[in-house]
Sequence to fold (666 residues):
Amino acid sequence: MAPSLAQLTDALENAAKRRFAVAGEPGPDTERGRRLSAAIEAMRHDHVYPAEQPEHRADGDHHDERVDVITAVFGLDELEAQLLVTALAPEMDASAADAFTLLGGDWTSGRATVALALEMCGVPTGSATGRTLLSTSGRLLRHRLVLLSGDGPFLRRCLRLPDRVSGHLLGDDMPELSIRRLLTPVTGLRTAHSDELARAVAAGAPLSWLHSPPGAPGAEVAAAALEAAGLDVLAADLSRRPPHAVLADIVAELGREGALQASGVVMLGADVLAEPEHHWIADRLLESVVPIVAVARRPWDARAARRLPYLADIPPLTHHGRSALWSQRLGAPAGSDDDPQRHELAALRLDPSQIAMAADQAHLLAAVRDEALGSELAREATRRLVSGTPAVPAPAVAAPARTSLHDIVLPPDAQGELERLIAWGRHREDVLTQGPVQGKGGKAGGIVAMFSGGPGTGKTLAAHVVADALGLELCQVDLSSVVDKYIGETEKNLERVFQQAEAQNALLFFDEADAVFGNRSQVRDARDRYANTEVSYLLQRMEQFHGIAVLATNLRGNIDSAFSRRLHFVVHFPDPDASTRRHLWVRHLDHIAALDEADPVDLTGLSEALEVSGGDIRNIVLSVAYDSIIEQVPAGMRHVVLAAEREYRKLGRRLPDGWPPASAAR
Fold:
């Protein structure tokens, strides 16, 4: 049983008697001595030994039970428990604070000095035992049960309980605000991985690291495992910590909170713990008194700690698993199994918590609009969720517009390859759950496609189409901020982009990819050697990439040949022929509100005369829209002729023979 305040009162009285017996110290007949005796007597009246307690115990004495629990959970010995009670005393009894002030001085603010605390525990103040008990390596300070205030000599510092510990010992179970802001509800999802993790927890694993890529139920698996081990779950998202918060403090307080609540701790967003500057924190986590499960998008870094935690890779949900969660959240109306939109929802690479958030938003939209809840509203809610997810910061830019396959005009073979790429993305997890079909030896389950073709042929638009069809943010890499003149910096910048794209479940789009994926050359000087190193790094990193990447290039021949076997798709975007150009003219002109019936646009003449790309046609039609609005007249063939001539001059090209068409009216 932990020491009580009655025992502390005896120790205080003995300390007072020792001071009264020393010549020069205030005696019991002085004002200070009388005040000290009165404070001790008040404590004696309020705190009695269990055998002397009345039948109806005072509410303030329930702290004894909580001290017993903390002593057991944190493995405190008798001396540590005495020091804990000594630090608690002034928090619950003003008479104890008065006694400590009278014995230690007004500067102590009613707290026991280290010297007084050790004296009352019977520990010599100059002993190594006293130093060890209250060192940063000791259990009391390491687990933040007790703090030392003041910066003077060790013996003159004061024992202080953190507000959360004193509140808990006095019956308040509310976590501190800094922790409450990070807490997030998690519903357990039992799988074979959760059963295995539960056995690891039962075997005493203090720290487990779950590698949970986008779309994987890492948090839900962790919660199910802790529940199976008979523990409550305290889940917190480290990525939600304020910018000014010190990570080591947050992690330590989370571990302490889990112990105070006798709960296992699930730390979401644990990728930050794998950063080199935070490796030492992992060593502290391996000393936790309650199980901690870290859920991260990144695999464990073997350099992060001196010992290995329990490691597990959590695969993404299958198409069937996501479909079941959507049905559970949205309901399963008749015929929903054959609903194409429901299948499209299940194809989105979302984890259970994201599906829950999107479903809640869909319910809200249905109530606001007074519409029936269905897949269409759920799809809209999912777009809001994905668009609201922080995209890859600089050096990447998130795509703002939403597109579909109907927005792009391609030859049948290119269109078919694009549709096949989208289908691969939708069913990737279903294929990967069958086994390492992608190969072994460090190969991940990512998909890499190359779009090749001249400028304006639709490569960038096609990347947007793929991203939107899969419900992903498109993150276009800004090569000007990635490529660095200093040796090794380009690889660091690229690694940061890859990691952030994986963490945010984004489609990574390299425009002008030959700038970084170019052919390796014969080494003639140091610049060649380091340029080849960058390409070799990219070759390896693309194989380890867990997401979807698209490389766009105008010059396919400039791409290093070693990338060919790492590409799953190569889609060529040819310059449009006359028939395709006609479709492009129709598609873009449809967006103009008013066309002049008296001056109709000659689609056949334009598509046959102007050998331009889809991007050029877009620019011409945009110019037509501005000109017609400025003139406040409907757009006609005359506007198209002038806009086409300006576009040709901008491109530095000669207009074709026979221009303008006979149908043009100047």
In short: The chain has five domains: 5-169, 177-313, 321-386, 405-573, 578-651.
